[in-house]
Amino acid sequence: MTQANVTDHAAGTTTVCPNCGGRVSYDIHSGTFRCESCRSEIQVETAKDTVDEYSIDGYSMREREGKPLTGVSTAICQSCGGEIYFDAHETAKRCPMCGSAQIRADVATSGVAPEGVVPFRIDAQDAQQRFRKWISRRWFAPNRLKKTYGEGRLEGLYVPCWTYDADTCADYTGQGGRTRTVRGRDGKTRTEIDWYHVSGRVYRSFNDLLVCASKNVTGGLVEKLAPFDTVNNIRPFACEYLSGYKAERYSIDGLQAFERAKEQMARELNSDAESDILSKGYSQSRIYSLSPRFRDVTYKGVLVPMYAAHYGYGGQTYSYAINGQTGKIFGRYPKSVPKILAAVLAGLLLLFGMMYLFSMDDDGHDAYAAAAAQPAYQCIQTVSDLPDGADLAES
After folding, report:
1. H helices of 82-239, where?
2. Could you tell me which of 134, 133, 118 has the C-alpha nearest to residue 300?
3. In this predicted model, what pLDDT tens digit does every residue of 287-322 receive, in sequence order?
4. Of residues 15, 18, 46, 40, the one with CA closest to residue 27
């Protein structure tokens, strides 16, 4: 292994191969840095060997004192407003967030630099194959859409996120319910719930709660593609990870994202409070008030890997994404009206066919028609032959 003569990756300096001067990038298959020219394995020195977390109380100061990321090229998308980082040796032709070609070169904005990166573990070819298999199973998708996997539209990008650690507790008030069965004067039974006032306190510790830091990644896409392993498979940030990929700068700062994190934590605490009520011997629970408290909160900025695809159909743009670490896929796609109509028609034909078969008796005659032809006195006789106390609906 060759050791490169570099440098300060906190500021974003790139590494050059000491053997041939070629560009160094991260190799997905080996999990190491290699020279793209001579394929030598390169040891990239970073400013830190660990991915650190910082107290949320000092975020504002770090935001003010942060410097622009260097060693990368920057572009602004005129369509979605995203600030995109990419390798200094490359040229961005299309926004990886929205697919627009309306981008312009710009200067990187100052702020909090990424602390860590979750590297890609799935290459573009594997992602294409996974996307092809996924879209081929969507029967209602238009046939034209199913061809996009071969059009080179998937693009690898790193999405900015914040992670948060916190020790939390919450005082709650609510009610616990116990069910009982009662019989009315008419002899019928019904279930009633007796509610009792309950209060208590619950505790929970959160580790690396992930919150997306991009306004352009909408619809909870990161959450739908989760999990991303930001605990065991995260590396200190280095610009070499961006070689061949793009990255977006965060557009939701750490304090704004923390408000979203608190909402997620509160939902978990609410669920814990409901479970706490059930543990006290109640069969039902409901929460009226919850007062969460957060302490020892720390955060870090991370980049998580994703492949994105954009497809225009019927005047609208649909987006798809693949988790670059696990291969999990999520996307929305247009539905083919002819296929939907064909499915509805097939379902109706199947339903009518089953109804016809069930209407036939053992001799192949129409049972419904035969029953309708029976004299009325025979039907009356059938009822009169029932045993005393028999329920007609059960005959």
Report:
1. 124-136, 221-225
2. 118
3. 999 999 999 999 999 999 999 877 666 777 777 889
4. 40
- DSSP symbols for 239-286: GGGGTT-EEEPPSS-HHHHHHHHHHHHHHHHHHHHHHHHHTTT-SEEE
Domain boundaries of the chain, sorted by first residue: 340-394
The predicted model gives 321-335 an average pLDDT of 84
Q: What are phi and psi of 301, to 5 degrees?
A: -95, 130
d(CA 290, CA 266): 8
CB atoms within 10 A of CB 334: 16
* Separation between Cα atoms, residue 88 and residue 244, nearest integer Å: 11
pLDDT averaged over every residue in the chain: 80
Q: How many residues does the structure list for the chain?
A: 395
For residue 377, name the pLDDT band (cuts at 50, 70, 90).
very low
Structure tokens at 68: 């622009």
Residue type present at position 71? G
Pure H helices in the chain = 59-65, 124-136, 221-225, 254-278, 337-358, 367-373, 376-384
